[in-house]
Amino acid sequence: MKTKIILILSIAWLLLSCDRFDREFSPQVTINEFTESFVNSGKELLTNGDIAGFMAFYSSEYLNNGTTKTDLENYFLLYDWSESVIISLSQISTLSFNVTISDATIDVHDTWVDFARMESGNYFWIGNGSTPIDLPKQIAIAQSFTGLWCSNCPEAAAELQRIESLYPDNFIYLKYHMSDALQMYNNFSDEHAYYGRPNPPTTIFQGQQILTGTSSAVLSAYQVVVEGILTDDAYITIEDVTFSVGDLNVEGSVSIFYEDFDINNLYLHYLVFEKEKNNTYTHGGAKATNVVRARGKHLLDHFDSGERFNFELELLEQVDDNAYLVIWVQRMENTSGFSEGDGIFNAIKIKL
After folding, report:
1. What are the beta bridge partners of residue 67?
2. At residue 31, what are phi and psi to the nearest 5 degrees?
3. What is the 3-state secondary structure (H, E, C) of 20-43?
4. Domain regions of the chain by residue span
């Protein structure tokens, strides 16, 4: 009888031990189940105003570039979330995601990178554990469609030149000439189509804001827009540029660095422009400046920070001694047409 009791107790102990082992080492939810619950249940919680319930998805140790769990809770408490609220996730790696919260009713659309971690058998948002980093600021780029025949284009050109004199190291303006002697050798029609085929003078700032015409309101907005861009953090940096200039080509390589950034649909753009040409505008006689002579781009597909990329530009004739190479990184969700979320994320200019 004693032997039977010992045997029964031993079996019970083994069963309990196995059960404890399963609970400790087998997750109660998978990462997919966690993210699905966050998207679906999270929407319901926000709509019902249950911010405390929504914050249960976040670890008490949450820290993401200096943002704590309390900071994030205060953000969600700012709004009366409607039935229109949408939570969407785009997976970057196994446990890192782009998180987007949007609500058209209250005009909210915010995106950030976040990280999940297993704690006590469940997943929670934990952040990257970092305090804010001191990021460099963006270089501003203006791309202008112009023509020597265009009566209003000299005014737009003069304003761009004036702003360049204020911020010579932080602002780059580039001019694509249309239907004149300075039209770019390798056609820019895809770039023109991407921005909706605007009439000159039209200037696009940072691949995002399009300003057409030369009314006083439009021209006064140029500097305001540029100064706003110059205060934005640069989550991408372009470094270690090497190049060689041949008789009819420019080739080189560059390293692209990024920090907690969505790298989907990014393109490397590179072009050569000449600082001044002898060609003059029909109206006013001002010389053409910052004239684009050749350009190219290619997709940066799922690359690591610091990865190096090659580039090459073909020229139909030698450029002048006042030529520059410009390189930038731009998000283009669809290269056939501009869409919300597209834009330029920093640039570099080097004299050839």
Report:
1. 64
2. -65, -35
3. HHHHHHCCCCCHHHHHHHHHHHHH
4. 31-125, 140-351
Nearest to 198 by CA among 267, 146, 270, 269: 146
**Cα 21–chain centre separation:** 45
**DSSP character at residue 55:** G
Matching CATH topology for 31-125 and 140-351?
no
In this prediction the pTM is 0.63
Q: What is the pLDDT of residues 247-294, one digit of tens each?
A: 899 999 999 999 778 899 999 999 999 999 999 999 999 999 999 999
Instruction: Write a three-state SS string for 136-195.
Output: CECCEEEEEEECCCCCCHHHHHHHHHHHHHHCCCCEEEEEEECCCCCCCCCCCHHHHHHC
Say whether domain 31-125 belongs to CATH 3.90.1200.
no
Question: Distance between CA 217 and CA 236 in Å, rounded?
Answer: 32
Lowest mean per-residue pLDDT among 1-5, 83-87, 105-109, 305-309: 1-5
Cα 250 to Cα 113: distance, rounded to the nearest angstrom: 37
CATH fold of the domain at 140-351: Immunoglobulin-like (2.60.40)
What are 198-253's pLDDT values in tens digits? 999 999 999 999 999 999 999 999 999 999 999 988 889 999 999 999 989 999 99
Q: Exposure pattern of 125-158 as b/e (b: 16+ CB <10 Å)?
A: bbbeeeeeeeeeebbbbbbbbbbbebebbbbbbe
Distance CA 313, CA 188 (A): 14
Q: Note whether 212 and 198 are within 8 A (CB).
A: yes
